[in-house]
User: Fold these one by one.
Assistant:
Number 1:
Amino acid sequence: MSRSRLENNEVDSAVVLSALGSKYSAEILCAAGTPKSAQALSETIEIPIATCYRRIEELVDAGLLTCEGRQLSDEGRRTNIYRRTLDEIEIDFSDDAPGFSRKRRTEAKNRLQDQLEE
């Protein structure tokens, strides 16, 4: 479901608002400016790993976070790596239903930020 919604850019504003309204979602998005595993996000934000996984799933379904691939953890397990898909979001409440616009992250910005983190 989340991949087809993301590819077609048909994410419902209610899904986005719901994901953003969940506790810790904003913190996860802020921390996911560079690729991070759920474990790293959980430790950075100091939240339980189960909660972190639930928020990640909501954010991915809303198209606000994406899985960039997999890497080996310190324990030798393959883990998903996540990064936010936007830098800004604007919510408009002036119509009958809320709408939103977002400033998507470019691949060039992702590569530049990755190089700065190394």
Number 2:
Amino acid sequence: MTTVLIISIVIVIGVLIFTILSINKGYQYKHTIDPIENNPHLQQDESEERKE
């Protein structure tokens, strides 16, 4: 019984460590966006608004 408990605790601690590492890596990811000048969808929307 003690062996099962120890193995379970090790597995839980391992999963917790990997979860924390993956969350930290996700927060470190640098998101980028397209500038307004190069956004083809914005140009389409502006031309549609002018037609109306």
